[in-house]
UniProtKB/TrEMBL annotation:
It is found in: Cytoplasm. Keywords: Cytoplasm, Endonuclease, Hydrolase, Manganese, Metal-binding, Nuclease. InterPro entries: RNase_HII (IPR022898), RNase_HII/HIII (IPR001352), RNase_HII/HIII_dom (IPR024567), RNaseH-like_sf (IPR012337), RNaseH_sf (IPR036397). It catalyses: Endonucleolytic cleavage to 5'-phosphomonoester. The keyword Manganese applies. The keyword Acetylation does not apply. Its EC number is 3.1.26.4. Belongs to the RNase HII family. This is Ribonuclease HII. Residues 8-197 form the RNase H type-2 domain.
Length: 197
C-alpha cells in the first residue's frame, strides 16, 4: 500500500453506497498520523466484515482527525447520486479538526473544496492508506446505519444486502413495494422502463 508524502498532511476521502437502491450514500475523510501503519488495511471492498470492524476503532483512535457523513435518499433524488457523493465527501471534510494541505479523492470526479488542492485517483482506495482508511469508515458507518433500517423493514434483508440491488432485494420490492428509504430516482426494478403493449 503506497502512501503520499507524510509532510503533505493529506486527507483521504471515499464514499460507500453509491450503487444502492435504498439508504444514504456515506462518505468519510481521514487525516492519518505520519507514522500510521497497518498490515491489514486495504480497500474496504477487499476486506472481510470482521477485518473492517477490527480496523474501525484503530483508525478512529490513531488518526489526526476524521469525519463521516451521510447524504440521504431525498437529497440523492434531488441532486443525483454523483453530486450527493461529492456532497457527502465535502460534509465529512467539514468535520476535520485540522485543515489538510491536500485532498486525495477516490475516483475521477470531485468539486473544489474551499481553497484546498485535490487529486482524484482511480482505485485510490487500493493505492493510498488515507483513502483506504476513509473507505473502511464510510463502509462500516453505512453498514451500521442499514442494520438499524433493517429492524424497521426486515423483509428487505438490508442486514445482509445493505440496500444493494441483489436478487432478494428486488424480489422484496416486487412483493412489498418501495419504502421511504428507497431512492426514487433509481431504476429499482429492471422492468421499470419497459412498456407492455
Amino acid at each position: 500500500m503506497k502512501k503520499f508524502y507524510h509532510f503533505l498532511n493529506e486527507a483521504g476521502t471515499d464514499e460507500a453506497g453509491r450503487g444502492c437502491l435504498a439508504g444514504p450514500v456515506t462518505a468519510a475523510a481521514v487525516i492519518l498520523n505520519s507514522d500510521f501503519s497497518s498490515p491489514i488495511l486495504n480497500d474496504s471492498k477487499q476486506l472481510s466484515e470482521i477485518k473492517r470492524q477490527l480496523l474501525r476503532p484503530i483508525i478512529e483512535h490513531e488518526v489526526v482527525s476524521f469525519g463521516v457523513s451521510h447524504v440521504f435518499e431525498n437529497e440523492i433524488d434531488k441532486i443525483n447520486i454523483l453530486n450527493a457523493s461529492i456532497l457527502a465527501m465535502h460534509k465529512s471534510l467539514n468535520q476535520l479538526t485540522k485543515k489538510p494541505s491536500l485532498i486525495l479523492v477516490d475516483g475521477n470526479r470531485f468539486k473544489p473544496y474551499k481553497d484546498i488542492p485535490y487529486k482524484c485517483i482511480i482505485k485510490g482506495d487500493s493505492k493510498y492508506m488515507s483513502i483506504a482508511a476513509a473507505s473502511v469508515l464510510a463502509k462500516t458507518y453505512r453498514d451500521e446505519y442499514m442494520l438499524k433500517l433493517h429492524e424497521e423493514y426486515p423483509e428487505y434483508n438490508w442486514a445482509k444486502n445493505k440496500g444493494y440491488p441483489t436478487k432478494g432485494h428486488r424480489e422484496a420490492i416486487r412483493k412489498y413495494g418501495l419504502t421511504k428509504y428507497h431512492r426514487r430516482s433509481f431504476k429499482q426494478l429492471p422492468e421499470q422502463l419497459t412498456l407492455e403493449i
